[in-house]
Write a structure and sequence with these properties.
By secondary structure, the protein is of the alpha/beta class. The chain is 36% helix and 22% strand. The protein has 2 domains: 2-121 and 295-308, Nucleotidyltransferase, domain 5, CATH 3.30.420; 130-291, Nucleotidyltransferase, domain 5 (2-Layer Sandwich), CATH 3.30.420. Bound molecules: zinc ion (ZN). Zinc ion is lined by residues 166, 176, 178, 180, 183.
Length: 310
């Protein structure tokens, strides 16, 4: 018998799922729309249907299902309950995803935050391969993070560790969605990049789109270059704080901006050098690298939760 796990990554738009072996081989995968607006019960039904579809595939095969791993947006506590969720998943907050699913399917169920799952996926099969201690960041609408310690997500007291986007880098700074002021994600998320662009290049049409800002900067347009420089310094300041706290072996960065490659990463790297103390990020230089698995990372990492057994 070949043991396999179902990995499920619940995003605001799509649920990605796959059948993953203990060696990381993906045997089957597919996505369905989340349709989160239909509410939490429909979402739970949908997760069950996904598991049933893989279960069905296993009839008369030599596969055996070992468990189900679920990565989901929102803060997930150590009991598999959604402590708080984004507006993308209405009604999800307070749901005991682990208990609900265990009541529906006869397999062990593991639930974690989506960025923890991404980090675990990268640790297993991506940019964090052969690294036991590294920081994974997801730069998007906000900033998610995870510290992988000894090959596992460090979860903290209640499971909420990794809220790096809410480290305050400016007292009395910009208001954050969390209710605090001056949070890093108000300066270094993609949403923040849009704001910085509009502030620094008001009146320029290209300033409305981060992709176009990068494209102008690549052409050498000075204001656009200045925007990218300023943005990358904000990104670097938060990373420097994390480097001083965790002394990690690498920083892995995911999210759409990573498509900018070295044009962005070289600036982040040199700014990190500028903002870190001697010995933390140099000699040799601490690797700051893009994530490798793209939108597959969360699904792969969710399956890995099963193989880790937590
Ligand atoms: Zn915040």
């Amino acid at each position: 018998m070949r043991e396999v796990a179902v990995g499920i990554d619940i995003g605001g738009t799509y649920i990605k799922s796959g059948l993953v072996g203990s060696d990381g081989q993906i045997w089957k995968q597919y996505s369905v729309p989340t349709e989160a607006s239909k509410g939490r019960d429909i979402l739970l039904d949908r997760i069950e249907q996904i598991v049933r579809s893989y279960e069905h595939l296993m009839i008369d095969s030599d596969f055996q299902l070992s468990g189900v791993g679920i990565g989901t947006a929102g803060y997930v506590n150590l009991q598999g309950i959604i402590g708080s969720a984004t507006d993308n998943l209405p009604g999800w907050q307070g749901t005991s995803v682990k208990k609900e699913m265990q009541g529906r399917i006869p397999y062990p169920v593991y639930v974690d935050n989506d960025v923890n799952a991404i980090a675990l996926g990268e640790c297993w099969m991506g940019a964090g391969r052969n690294r036991d201690h590294f920081i994974c960041l997801a730069l998007g609408t906000g900033i998610g993070g995870c510290f992988i310690a000894e090959g596992r997500p460090y979860r903290g007291r209640s499971g909420y560790a990794g809220a790096y986007g809410h480290q305050v880098i400016a007292m009395d700074g910009h208001s954050c969605t969390c209710g605090l002021k001056g949070c890093w994600e108000q300066y270094a998320s993609v949403t923040a990049l849009k704001r910085i662009s509009l502030e620094m290049a008001s009146g320029f049409k290209w300033a409305e789109s981060p992709e176009e800002v990068f494209s102008e900067a690549r052409k050498g347009v000075q204001i656009a270059v200045d925007i990218v420089q300023r943005y990358s310094e904000y990104v670097a300041i938060g990373i420097a704080n994390l480097i001083h706290i965790f002394n990690p072996t690498a920083i892995v960065i995911g999210g759409a901006v990573t498509a900018q490659g070295d044009f962005l990463f070289e600036r982040i790297r040199s700014n990190v050098q500028k903002h870190t103390m001697y010995g933390f990020a140099d000699q040799p230089e601490l690797p700051i690298v893009p994530a490798e698995l793209g939108n597959m990372a969360g699904m792969i990492g969710a399956a890995k939760l099963v193989w880790l057994g937590n």
